[in-house]
Structure formats: C-alpha cells, structure tokens
Amino acid sequence: MAMSRQDVQKAVAGNHDFRVFDHNQPIAPQFEGIDVVVDHGGLIGTREMADIVAGKLKLWQVLGTGLDHFDTGYWHDLGIPLANCPGTTSGSGLADLAMMYILMLARNYPMAPRALHEGLYNEPLGRDPGNLILGIIGFGASGKDVARRAGPFGFKIQIIDTRDVTDAELREFNLDYVGTPEDTDTVVANADFLSLHLPLTDETKHIIDRRRLALMKPTACLINVARGELVDEAALTDALVKQEIAGAGLDVFAQEPPDLNSSLFTLENVIATYHCAGVTDGTSRRRAAIAAENIDRLANYLAPLNLVP
Q1: Active site (annotated) includes residue 256
Q2: Which of 49, 62, 229, 297 is deepest in the core (most CB within 10 A)?
C-alpha cells in the first residue's frame, strides 16, 4: 500500500494538490475542496465517505481492477463517478505468480525441502511440461499473459472465454482449444494445470465446485490468483486431502485473511501466498499512471477513462 501511495504521489503531486487521508483524523474536513479520491484497491471507501462527497466529487478512482468487494451500487445511487484500473495494469504480476505455481507444482517442489533434509537423492520426481495441457478459464489480460509465459515451455493451451477469440490471438498463442463458458467442463477435464482468470460475479462464484473438481485428472493441479470464491474451498480441500487432484497454487481465499488453522494450509501438495499476485512495483506504477491520467483529464475538462457503468 505504501508503494502505491508513493507512486501516486509522485505521478500526481507535481501538477495537483495532493493530500494523504489520515484515519486518525475527523473524516469530513479531509474531503473539503477535494475533486478526486484515489482509493487503494477500493478497500478504503466507506458509505460515510460517499455521503460526504456526493454531489461534489468529480471522480472516485479505485487503484484496482476487481470491484466485487466494493459498494459499487451505493456509489452509483449517489451519482459519484467511479473508475477502476484495467486488467493490463496487474495482468503480468498475476501471470508471473500463476506461472511460478505451475512450474513449482510440475517439479513437485512442495516435497523438495523434505527430500533435501531427509537426504532423498534424485527426489522428488518432476513432470516435463512439454505437451501437458494448461487450461485457462478467462482469457483477458492475465490469462493471455499466462499463455505467453507457458507457450515456450511446451504447454498446450486450452482456453474458455465469453468473447470471440480473434484469428490474431489464435496465431499468437497457438491455442489448442477455444471454448465458451458452456465448454468449461471440457477444459476442466482435459487440463493438467487449470488456471483461473475471472472476475467474481454471481455467475462465476464457485465455478470450480465439487462436481468440476471431480472432472479433473487425479494428476491435475488447480491455480487461483484471481478471486477465492471462484472455488468451493471446502470441496477443494477435500479433493486435495483425498488426493483426487494432485495439488493447488493459491493466492486468494474465500475468507480473507484466511483461517490459517484450516487443513488446507497443512497439505504438502498446496503452495499458498496471501493475495500478493498483483502486488509488484510495475503494477503500482501502472496504476498510479492511470490515476494521474484521469486527474489530468478532469483538469482539462475531459471525461475520465475506465469509468465503471
């Protein structure tokens, strides 16, 4: 968070009056004379703040992409213009972590430290990624960036997306299979690694449920750097405990912060981090640039970009 604030301040402060919100001070006076609020990830804004700025604020700029945790309807009801950052700002960070999980699980890395300390020479057995199938559910910015990273390793790329994939994308990514949401079961069943790159909506919640986990190969691994509730976490834990799937790489969870006493975090076939996939210096600078551009546009009487309908 500090890096994002510093990057926004660097991008904005030279041309505009910039103030940092202080949670220890009264709220209302801090919003007096403010035209734009830059909200880190959409995690700061409260209804009290919205009530204070309604009718006066030109833009509430969220430094994030997903808004499933943000009270979007309340902001819209008050007529507060709301903008977020496109997925391209964090796509590479998400893809890097997803690819790290894929390679670590392919090489059975979770067992490697134990093998080292127990002197188990030539263990654990890894998998050659050549000709393994990587299923990508959601082919937006981060999904494409995973495909870019996985292709040179020899993975066959199968994708699901709601839109029509272009001929140029078919050529660029050498896609082995392209399906619509109705074809999700096919890719889930085919994949050796299944990576999720979707926003959380009513339609995508628990898109990976007990039934779909049962479709996966017992040698397959699930990767989730998007949103925790895309997956039925209890069903996933059961599948991992029973070794009905081979492993998981998880950066997001149904409850955040997660319950670290959950058996999910005791499993050797799970690699877990805590919602850090998009937390990179590049993401921070790109999001700061988006915020700065919108502030400059408003100062020049232009409509802001990336408005949330």
Answers
A1: yes
A2: 62
**Active-site annotation holder among 227, 229, 286, 287:** 227
The dotted CATH code for 2-88+280-299 is: 3.40.50.720
Residue 114 is among the residues annotated as catalytic for this protein: no
- Which CATH number does 91-272 carry? 3.40.50.720
Q: Give the rounded percent of residues in the chain with a pLDDT score beyond 70.
A: 99
pLDDT, tens digit, for every residue of 10-27? 998 888 999 999 999 999
233 is catalytic: no
Choice among 114, 172, 210, 256 that is catalytic? 256
Query: What pLDDT does 1 receive?
Result: 54
From the candidates 127, 275, 285, 297, give the one annotated as an active-site residue.
275
Query: What is the residue-averaged pLDDT of the chain?
Result: 94
3-state helix, strand, coil in the chain (%, to 5): 40, 15, 45
Instruction: Over range 147-166, report the average pLDDT.
Output: 96
Tokens of 287: 């999001």
Q: Buried (b) or exposed (e) across 256-267, using 16+ Cβ within 10 A?
A: eebeeeeebeeb
| Sequence ranges of the domains in the chain | 2-88+280-299, 91-272
